[in-house]
Backbone:
């Protein structure tokens, strides 16, 4: 027994010992056990990689932390979507609205004179109504223009002139003995002292008739004043001067009264197209385009009322390049353009 222990100890002491520096850095050789000494099989250890510590090789690009395939690091960059410049529309910018600033004159048709066929105390017709508006703004569009007609035998009062919702009324017609006077833009004269003269909504009133011999009738009212009155009859009322056309023109004078059988004589019409009255013949018609009242007549035909007018004016340079403006008779007077309507028509403003 003791002999066996000694043999084992001696055998163990005979193995060579290597220092760590003598060992191979990359591999470790396992001991060989001689079959003759201990009967064991030779066992060769598997070489171990010193650097990897026998860890399995891992492809860094093969998977991410979650086990999913990671994208290659050299993937091509994403291309930005192509934009066709032709398909991009520039923003639409609306032009600022245009307002054409105009001056406007409107005169209604004058009233017919009174009398005729021997009727006494014939009065003068009233002038058409007078309307003047400065610096009125107009938007681009079409504007109907109505020019009033003068009064006639069948229609004593004149008719109105209209533009852009502004109206100049027709003048009141004259009358004959024992008829009521007529009101209008300017009033017709009275034919008898029993009735008041016609009143003017946009001008003067008619004159009063004389209550005694020679029973003269009243003159028609004008835009600038009342018709005259008195024993021998009254003159027509004065009109109003305006330079919208480029020249000073007096508009809307009243008609003068006619004569009477008792000695009153026909009287003059008012400045501004008023017609004169007559004792023996026809009365003078009011001036067309001025809206004058017609003159009265004792033995003939009373004068008709004068046709009205519409005049529109603006500074030419303000709109020459931004708007086309048409309608009426167009003239240029100094720095202004003037559109004159003596008959119905249309003023049209169109942006350029």
Residues:
């Amino acid at each position: 027994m003791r002999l066996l222990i000694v043999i084992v100890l001696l055998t163990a002491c005979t193995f060579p010992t290597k220092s760590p520096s003598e060992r191979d850095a990359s591999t470790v050789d396992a001991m060989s056990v001689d079959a003759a000494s201990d009967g064991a099989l030779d066992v060769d250890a598997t070489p171990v990689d010193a650097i990897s510590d026998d860890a399995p090789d891992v492809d860094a690009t093969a998977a991410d932390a979650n086990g999913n395939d990671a994208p290659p690091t050299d993937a091509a960059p994403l291309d930005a979507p192509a934009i066709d410049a032709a398909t991009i529309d520039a923003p639409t910018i609306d032009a600022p609205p245009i307002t054409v600033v105009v001056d406007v004159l409107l005169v209604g048709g004058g009233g017919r004179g009174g009398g005729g066929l021997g009727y006494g105390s014939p009065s003068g017709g009233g002038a058409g109504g007078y309307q003047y508006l400065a610096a009125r703004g107009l938007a681009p569009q079409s504007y109907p223009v109505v020019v009033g007609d003068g009064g006639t035998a069948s229609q004593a009062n004149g008719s109105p002139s209209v533009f852009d919702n502004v109206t100049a009324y027709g003048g009141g017609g004259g009358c004959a003995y024992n008829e009521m006077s007529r009101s209008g833009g300017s009033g017709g004269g009275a034919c008898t002292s029993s009735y008041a003269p016609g009143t003017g909504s946009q001008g003067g009133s008619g004159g009063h008739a004389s209550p005694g011999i020679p029973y003269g009738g009243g003159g028609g009212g004008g835009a600038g004043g009342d018709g005259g009155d008195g024993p021998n009859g009254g003159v027509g009322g004065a009109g109003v001067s305006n330079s919208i056309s480029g020249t000073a023109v007096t508009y809307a004078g009243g008609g003068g009264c006619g004569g009477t059988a008792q000695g009153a004589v026909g009287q003059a019409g008012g400045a501004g197209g008023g017609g004169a009255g007559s004792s023996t013949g026809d009365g003078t018609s009011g001036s067309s385009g001025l809206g004058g009242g017609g003159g009265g007549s004792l033995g003939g035909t009373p004068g008709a009322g004068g046709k009205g007018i519409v005049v529109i004016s603006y500074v030419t340079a303000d709109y020459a390049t931004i708007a086309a403006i048409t309608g009426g008779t167009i003239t240029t007077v100094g720095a202004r353009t003037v559109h004159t309507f003596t008959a119905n028509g249309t003023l049209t403003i169109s942006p350029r």
Remarks:
- The chain has three helices and twelve strands.
- The helical segments are 2-13, 35-38, 316-319.
- Residues 96-352 form one domain.
